[in-house]
User: Fold these one by one.
Assistant:
Number 1:
Amino acid sequence: MKKSLLLFVAMLGISMLSFGQLDTVIGFTFPVQTGIDSLNANYGDTLNLGYDIRFESESAGTQDSITLTNGVTDYAATANSWENGADDKYFSIKFKTGYYTNLVLYAKMRCGGTNPGPKYFKVQYRISSSGTWTDVCTDTVTVANDWTTGVIDGWNLPSETWNASQSVYVRFLSITNETPAGATVDSLGIVKIDDIFVVGLNNTAIGENSLMNTRVFPNPANDVLNIENNESVSVLYIFSTDGRVVSQISNPGQSIDISNLAAGHYMLRMVAGDNAVKTQSLIVE
């Protein structure tokens, strides 16, 4: 399980219950190395969990392959073929922000040791696939052969990305053909990215939230969870700590059977018909 401060901030966001709550919009920690969903977001709004990370070339209009190699804790999205990639090649993610504001970005990047990729990157965003790429800020990301140099530690995304009716795209764009050692990046040059999170303020938690009186108990629980004022809940999700949906129940009743869940920590998320969201931690004994 991820134990970095970055993940702590993101997990805190999806467990807060106060109005105007901070929430994880999308997050990638790459807990598994293979499988059809291994490059997909494993944290965040349910609308964003199916989105993946990509490695692309703007001039060629193509995607290249991403593998999963050793990361901060588990695995990291890894790409080579960064040669001649300045202002052209990039990692990208996309996500929905329909009811989120005050968006903040976190990520960690690293160069390969024996085969280093480019040293400098910048972060850009656009609204919809046909939008114009725009710098998030004037800062650049300096990447080295460690996980502590190339850290994006809470960059504010512009207000244009808030409450967007179309998908928001964020990319991590190479802006040099030079390695950290000053050599020219070749086709074997490697860059990794891990612990990518976008967090924001969940507007559905402000004012008269339709789930404000809904309560789940007991916690810790054993075989059964009770839901008080369950009428507003359209879907209930239970997530494992690695971001997998282990249970999904539509229109849950006043009690649900959780006897199939192994003992441990989980995240519970309820979604109402008006898209209000309420999340909390859950302990199963």
Number 2:
Amino acid sequence: MIRVLGVRLVVSYDGTAFAGWQRQVAQRTVQEVLEGAIARITGEPLTIRGCSRTDSGVHAHGQVVAFDTERDISPHAWVRGLNSQLPDDVAVRSAEPCEPGYQPRYDACGKTYRYLLHLSATRDPMLRHRAWHLGPRMARPLPGHLGRPENRTRLEHWLDLDAMEDAAKRMEGKHDFDAFRSIRDDRINSVRHLRHVRLVRGWMQPDLVALEVRGTAFMQHMVRIIAGTLVDVGRERMTPDDVSALLALEKNRHAAGQTAPPHGLHLLNIELGRIALEAELAAQTDQG
């Protein structure tokens, strides 16, 4: 009898040259590249199961992937072997055994994203694939000489960060985020729980602002629309009260802010354990 083994990987990738995670005809995708590398080691045809379907241009530091194989290979050998087969813009960070057929998508109980904003009069070539550059044309209006690019010497001169933090705080908790998803997302339930939505000023360098969003689940383009809406608040085109109305009353995608470009978005990590938690709760119910 053939023994089938499950393998779970944590994968990082630079999304710049990919047409997203999911396999597509005549497109370079992360799924296709990973499946090719695994197949070259195992000699088996296979389909890998990813936890998050990142869009074209979106980066990941902690994507979770699983697959089944008949090859009995140690975790260390999987990491070393796959990284020897993968291109420079994809890397396997860790490997471990899991149950055959394991679906990481159903085991996720939380995800954390970071969106980077670059606030500066000039572009930074080192950030062109990592952060959304918001230069003079995207800045908040300021009176007189303060509105000139050379006089915007503080982050607060570019965007109203206090108003953005107020609006971000209002997004925390359980809300209907119908206005914060792509019009192509047709899921019936648009209620999501965001554990935190926070701005980090001067993240890694003085002219960067990081938006960090942690929640139980997300919809298509949700974090990018949150980022775009907060930027519109910072530009004084929307108010924190407008954001509250979108969560409570309006629920209109066209009333929310713009969809931020994909290259500023980074999937940081995925929290696992939902399957075990549900099994534990079911056992407690049976005992009761």
